[in-house]
Amino acid sequence: MTRISFEKLAQDGKARLGVIKTPRGDIRTPAFMPVGTAATVKAMLPQSVRETGADILLGNTYHLMLRPTAERIDRLGGLHKFMNWDRPILTDSGGFQVMSLSGLRKLTERGVTFKSHIDGSKHEITPERSMEIQKLLGSDIVMCFDECPALPADRDRIASSMRMSMRWAERSREAFGDRPGHALFGIQQGGLEQDFREESAEALKDIGFDGYAVGGLAVGEGQDAMFDVLDFAPDMLPEDKPRYLMGVGKPDDIVGAVARGIDMMDCVLPSRSGRTGQVFTRHGVLNIKNARHMDDPRPLDENCGCPACRNYSRAYLHHVFRSQEIISSMLLTWHNLHYFQDLMSGMRDAIAQGSFAAWQADFHAARAGGDLEPL
Amino acid sequence: MTRISFEKLAQDGKARLGVIKTPRGDIRTPAFMPVGTAATVKAMLPQSVRETGADILLGNTYHLMLRPTAERIDRLGGLHKFMNWDRPILTDSGGFQVMSLSGLRKLTERGVTFKSHIDGSKHEITPERSMEIQKLLGSDIVMCFDECPALPADRDRIASSMRMSMRWAERSREAFGDRPGHALFGIQQGGLEQDFREESAEALKDIGFDGYAVGGLAVGEGQDAMFDVLDFAPDMLPEDKPRYLMGVGKPDDIVGAVARGIDMMDCVLPSRSGRTGQVFTRHGVLNIKNARHMDDPRPLDENCGCPACRNYSRAYLHHVFRSQEIISSMLLTWHNLHYFQDLMSGMRDAIAQGSFAAWQADFHAARAGGDLEPL
User: Fold this and answer.
1) What is the pLDDT at residue A237?
2) Is pLDDT larger for residue A170 or for residue A374?
3) How far apart are CA B145 and CA B185, in angstroms?
4) Interface contact B298, partner A, CB < 8 A
5) pTM of the entire predicted model
6) Which of A267, A291, A326 is at the close of a domain?
7) Which residues of A are known catalytic residues?
8) Are residues B164 and B137 in the same domain?
9) Under an 8 A CB cutoff, do A294 and B72 touch?
10) Is residue B373 assigned to a domain?
11) Domain range for A332
12) Which ipTM was obtained for this model?
């Protein structure tokens, strides 16, 4: 089977245009990955997710190992077949969500034990078990098992956590083995500290990975602090491999990350916001539940080509949101995912043309000039 | 504008094959109308409803008059545009749902006053107001405003209620006026009493309508009692007009009604059941939440062409139902609506070929031989 490869096609400032080639199809970068936590991108059929322009989905190891279990998905032919998505899937390692969702965690050098948020049952994830689960799922891009402290944290805590994650990265690499057609990504840690980020990057490069994530950001530190780290952290990672910023983010976070050399991102924001009535547009965020939309015959965005904008008024979307109709989640999620993919497509075109700085200026100007509700 | 017309194309026993021609498209009969209560067939996009084979939807006057209001829908261009469904829509009169859903009702010869189940606000529906609301919505097939008692009820109550509904039918006809391209249907009442059904049918024929509904059934009387009434009630209605049985029903109710000369039906059952995990198949009902489906790689029905059956295992559908994912409602509703439309299509073909009795025998045999969970 073909190995997964990354080709950089153009660069404009630090912004990179590229393509990740996989046996399941190409991933155009910069790429935004919709999140399909429990083997579904909530409120969307997979073909609709594809129609928004997504080349790859993210699946959550933590959720899937608990229900329906990785072993069951394997018996049923793997995650792609199970959820009817034949293009690439990246799975996280489970570590982050053990920390944020489960109860009664115990962290040791060996790994982490925890209780399921669904039924309280006890489970363990080690680097070796995370690799096994992600293999059972059939993930195309596998993430190293890591650990990161909530910020702010003191330097000692950040350093010891980062160093354990680097030992776990080595164990993950060892356990992953050689799997043509599947990639393993390392995850840089080190909080906001430049020296620890450097130490982490060197450790990962010594091990050697198919791609490198910037981890431990978007955990409450704020956009300024995140951008400060992104001003130096991606440059520490190999030029010829994809760089993935985990769990990001709002449209302006995404644009700022791409400007700093990030190639891949994922976030639940477009889908979660779709269910709560927050709509992303070129002009900013619109809250469909507001009474101002009750009689408005206009689409969410007259220049958007998604089904919600082509076929429905704001008044209709307001009505079905207020009536708690499922079609509200379906249409608003579709719109938001479409918007996020349009954003990526716009950036890719701009980088190809060497006009990324002008594109960025237009992006910020359009949002400043809008009459929409702030997030 | 063309008038709405009905043409009977074939008859087999009492079962009728026909077509209702409207400016918004043909309605093939026997027809099943999915219910789009609040301007959406729950969990479905309109184009998906159309793909199941539906020629016409039902909208609920009671719900729409309360939210978003008929006047608002009119200002926004009518219900078809509002909900993005350009084919025919039949609206009920609001009467039945005032009785079943609203609070503090007061019924007089003039009409009914009630409090909204949404916000407690006070409203009135009279025959004249019901015609006005249905006109504002832009309904293609308008129903007379009527009233019916819950069964069992004594003969005096049934007779006085039926006679008031007949006076309301005359007021509805008068208020509706002459609207080419739009049809008005009368509603036969009279409970389970053959003499009152006859009296009601005569009163309606004297007034003259574009179609005739059999009302006041499927309100708890049971299938045997309903079929007893359907053995005589449809025959009392004009041969050359469509006959509509309101609020029916389960697949075997539908088949039995068609066998007795009914042309149109509506019911929330396929969509509501889709949300609660009940799946209709040729072999009977399957409850997707049962643990027996957890590892089952088979589709719901190997002969069904809907997206749920083409693309997903029972194991997946079980998983997303248990995980309370929206895609569960989307896929199961789609399957159920597809099954109901397949049922109608099968009956239409059988009537055309003069083989309806054999088709009915096959229908019952397939259900008897299944290994599925009873409803």
Assistant:
1) 98
2) A170
3) 10
4) no
5) 0.97
6) A267
7) 92, 266
8) yes
9) yes
10) no
11) 274-367
12) 0.97
